[in-house]
Design a protein that fits this description.
202 residues, 0% strand, single chain, 6 helices
């Protein structure tokens, strides 16, 4: 309704302004009267706009109050529900329940640990004795390895005498006569070995 009234007043103000413009040079008295009527209409329009703003503000306040009321009612209902729940609970009961639960968990862990332990069915083992025996076995094995290393023969390569002589430096080599004598002795030795292998006497 107020919107329609505002539109009507705005239309009349526009008409009065057109009359004033049309007579501003022809008839100033008519133009002045039109401006006065426009001014009166403007005042009415301002009052209506103010009233409309007040109403809109009230509407928003009412909506906010309704939201607050709904929120309050929801909180009240929630509080009552919590009270009803807590009537069946108290801190002592909760603590007792938590203690019982912890006790059962500890019991379950103990049972699991007992079941997982290997059973020797009467045979009692001394861990220290077993460790000492293991160390003794390790020491015996080390002793064997050391003995085998000491008894292992060292094979040296056979080097012919002639090769050794050829590898000597000039300072260590014998005279030609000595070399001839050594060569003859080598031949005699080889001949003797050949006769011996054939069963012949010297």
């Amino acid at each position: 309704m107020l919107e329609k009234r505002e539109a009507h007043l705005q239309s009349k103000m526009d008409n009065e302004e057109q009359v004033a413009r049309a007579n501003v040079t022809k008839n100033k008295r008519v133009a002045l009267a039109a401006l006065k009527r426009k001014k009166i209409l403007q005042d009415q329009l301002d009052k209506i706009m103010g009233s409309r703003m007040t109403i809109e503000t009230q509407v928003m306040a009412i909506e906010a109050a309704n939201v607050n009321m709904e929120t309050f009612n929801a909180m009240k209902i929630g509080t009552e529900a919590m009270k009803n729940i807590h009537k069946k609970l108290d801190i002592d009961k909760v603590e007792d329940t938590m203690d019982d639960m912890k006790e059962q968990v500890d019991l379950a862990n103990g049972v699991s640990e007992a079941i997982s332990q290997p059973q020797l069915f009467g045979a009692e083992l001394d861990e220290d004795e077993l460790n000492a025996e293991l160390e003794g076995l390790e020491q015996e094995e080390l002793d064997k390895q050391l003995l085998n290393a000491e008894a292992a023969p060292v094979a040296l390569p056979k080097v012919p005498v002639a090769s050794v002589r050829q590898g000597l430096s000039p300072l260590h080599q014998a005279s030609p006569a000595r070399q001839q004598q050594a060569h003859e002795e080598d031949e005699d030795d080889e001949l003797a070995e050949l006769r011996e292998s054939m069963g012949m006497a010297a």
